Q: What sequence folds into this?
């Protein structure tokens, strides 16, 4: 921010007090406006200064990211990274508005699901990998490929994870049920949900996002939401029958809780952690928080086996170089450090990320006492596909979220949901 | 809006010579004081208003280059866009449900705490608390009350053995829930307006009516209420304008859902502009809403002659 400017003394002497007042007023206002304009500038021009924009949800997270940013300076003392942050939801709005005003940070963070939507903000990193000394096979291939759009690598991944079943181990044991494990089936899942639905608590909490239904469609039909040509394709029997089964869990079987409202994508996570539903679907990024929050023992299991096996999707996030970066090479070097071995080990140990670097994944298990999760994680990763999305995924998912509530609660039909989502995808 | 009073010239003031020079000087000082405000108005009101009008004629993505489409956005809104139609219906439904309930509740409470009640000042403060509580905070509390297994649901289960409807997750109940939150949030302001107006009702008129044999009911509807009509008009105009702009309630409580059942015009505007990044389209919605509000306010001002009494 620049300081408001006032007229120099020798000028002031020549002016009457009144004119001085009027000029000072105007100048002050102008300076204030100029300061506002200047404040929004993200990229800093000088020398080795870089800005890095990343979402975060707590001060602990911010501290962890700042620690990693410091690693960039340790690796190259001429580079200094300034960390900028926003909450997850605000991040995407701010990222867009900053890009629109040409004031993006030098290093940007990107989630694989949103990569097609924001592809034009990134400098492809493919040519730089060799000079940075990065071998692509040190990263988990599904997320490394997941951050590519049209064959171009937009960002290097730092975390990733498969969507898996989270279950209330205590409730399962008290009900005398076998704990869900590799090889359990959809029938086992429904039977457990029935038995666990008692006393105002439910066996399952359904997600009103495509994320929650996709693993079941994959397991039964080996069909995803986006076809090989990159187009949304949910208007088919695979989706229809899976979503009908999913909705029936709420309306017919009554083993899953009714969805509470149109805007609660976190309802499943919250209700599970509060002990109101014994099972839900979630990613490893929620596991450490779930274990810390829940007053029961939290377990994870692979998606129940369907007609085509137990399958799920993986997604993750990474860091890339903004097209408006003043020094793209320096920014690329910073990205290499932010996703490097040391950073990944640190983030894994801190429980901030399930590392995208295969060799550092053990630090996540070791640092967070999650040894028992390893078999489930390994199995789910092996049986997963990258979560592919379209460029207007926000619209598609928004339509799904709001109409899933009506379809799953029995206010409308699954057909209606599918048609609306498909129509949104074709816009 | 305040209407600028005509300048009062003190008797005997000469409008010549030195006085005029002083006036010119005053102009400069006035300029000095007005500049900050005027710049703010130019930068943050006038410029965005004009910019949004221009943008509404473009296909204006946040990223990438805008293309001129003429009335394309408006044509899309009125011909092919189902969500826009739903948003209009939802907004009108909200207005029709909310405005009368708000006026009746705030008027009812204002009358109730009118002079006869002990400690009415404390009631005024008490009733005004929801109005100064941030809307988001109120909405979160309402979510906890209305959600399945929330307070209302649990209480109904233990008292009647039957649970409450899934208020926020049902297309039929979501809009009434949004209205309920809005009334809770909004009645305090109008209550203050009516309360002050009730205090200003000349007591001798009420007493005269009483002597003439008018009962409490007649005294209120035939004497007090006409005297309150300017306040009712003021409250109705402001409440109507703000209710056409309803956004936060449905954004926090229901996210515009389930389905599109609580997607109001401003909610749809926000989604189009800031979630789907169609700035031109969102600007077109804003202008349609602006014209709506302007017409309805104009109609109210024309209609007021029939029922608003300014003389006592």
A:
């Amino acid at each position: 921010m620049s300081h408001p400017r006032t007229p120099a003394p020798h000028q002031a002497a020549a002016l009457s007090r009144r004119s001085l007042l009027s000029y000072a007023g105007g100048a002050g206002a102008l300076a204030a406006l100029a300061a506002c304009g200047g404040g929004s500038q993200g990229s800093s021009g000088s020398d080795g200064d870089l800005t890095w924009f990343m979402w975060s949800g707590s001060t602990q997270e911010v501290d962890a990211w700042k620690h990693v940013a410091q690693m960039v300076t340790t690796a190259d003392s001429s580079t200094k990274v300034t960390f900028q942050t926003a909450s997850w939801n605000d991040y995407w709005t701010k990222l867009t508005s900053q890009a629109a005003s040409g004031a993006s940070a030098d290093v940007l963070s990107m989630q694989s699901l949103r990569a097609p939507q924001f592809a034009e903000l990134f400098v492809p990193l493919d040519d730089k990998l060799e000079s940075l000394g990065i071998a692509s096979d040190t990263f988990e291939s599904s997320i490394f490929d997941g951050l590519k759009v049209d064959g171009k690598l937009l960002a290097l991944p730092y975390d990733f994870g498969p969507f898996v079943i989270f279950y209330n181990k205590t409730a399962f044991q008290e009900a005398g049920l076998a704990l869900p494990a590799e090889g359990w089936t959809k029938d086992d899942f429904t039977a457990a949900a029935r038995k666990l639905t008692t006393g105002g608590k439910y066996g399952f909490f359904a997600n009103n996002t495509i994320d929650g239904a996709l693993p079941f469609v994959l397991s039964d039909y080996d069909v995803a939401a986006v076809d090989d040509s990159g187009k949304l394709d949910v208007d088919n029997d695979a989706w229809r029958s899976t979503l009908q089964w999913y909705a029936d869990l709420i309306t017919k079987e009554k083993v899953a809780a009714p969805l509470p409202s149109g805007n609660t994508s976190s309802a499943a996570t919250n209700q599970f952690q509060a002990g109101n539903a014994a099972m839900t679907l979630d990613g490893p990024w929620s596991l450490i928080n779930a274990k810390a929050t829940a007053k029961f023992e939290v377990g994870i299991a692979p998606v129940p086996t369907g007609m085509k096996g137990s399958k799920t999707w993986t997604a993750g996030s990474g860091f890339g170089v903004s097209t408006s970066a003043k020094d793209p090479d320096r920014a690329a070097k910073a990205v290499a450090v932010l996703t490097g071995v040391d950073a990944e080990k640190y983030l894994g140990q801190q429980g901030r990320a399930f590392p995208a670097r295969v060799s550092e994944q053990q630090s996540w298990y070791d640092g967070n006492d999650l040894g028992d999760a390893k078999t489930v994680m390994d199995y789910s990763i092996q049986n997963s596909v990258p979560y592919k999305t379209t460029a207007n995924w926000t619209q598609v998912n928004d339509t799904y979220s709001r109409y899933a509530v009506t379809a799953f609660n029995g206010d409308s039909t699954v057909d209606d949901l599918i048609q609306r989502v498909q129509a949104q995808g074709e816009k | 809006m305040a209407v600028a009073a005509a300048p009062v010239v003190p008797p005997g003031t000469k409008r010549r010579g030195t006085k005029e020079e002083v006036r010119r000087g005053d102009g400069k000082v006035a300029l000095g004081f007005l500049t900050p405000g005027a710049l703010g108005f130019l930068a943050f009101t006038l410029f965005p208003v004009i910019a949004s009008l221009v943008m509404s004629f473009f296909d204006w993505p946040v990223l990438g280059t805008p293309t001129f489409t003429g009335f394309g956005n408006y044509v899309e809104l009125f011909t092919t866009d189902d969500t826009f139609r739903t948003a209009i219906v939802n907004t009108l439904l909200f207005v029709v449900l909310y405005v009368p309930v708000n006026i009746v509740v705030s008027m009812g409470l204002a009358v109730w705490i009118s002079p006869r009640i002990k400690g009415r000042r404390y009631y005024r403060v008490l009733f005004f608390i929801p109005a100064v509580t941030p809307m988001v905070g109120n909405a979160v509390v309402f979510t906890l009350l209305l959600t399945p297994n929330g307070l209302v649901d649990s209480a109904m289960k233990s008292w009647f053995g039957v649970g409450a409807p899934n208020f926020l997750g049902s297309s039929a109940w979501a809009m009434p829930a949004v209205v309920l939150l809005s009334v809770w949030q909004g009645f305090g302001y109008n209550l203050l307006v009516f309360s002050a107006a009730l205090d200003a009702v000349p007591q001798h008129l009420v007493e005269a009516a009483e002597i003439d044999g008018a009962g409490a009911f007649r005294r209120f509807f035939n004497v007090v209420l006409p005297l309150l009509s300017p306040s009712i008009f003021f409250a109705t105009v402001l409440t109507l304008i703000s209710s056409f702009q309803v956004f936060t309630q449905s954004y926090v409580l229901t996210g515009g859902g389930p389905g599109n059942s609580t997607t109001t015009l401003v909610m749809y505007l926000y989604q189009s502009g800031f979630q789907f990044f169609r700035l031109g389209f969102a600007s077109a919605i804003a202008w349609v809403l602006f014209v709506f509000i302007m017409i309805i306010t104009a109609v109210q001002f024309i209609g007021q002659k029939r029922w608003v009494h300014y003389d006592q």
Summary: The radius of gyration of chain B is 25 Å.
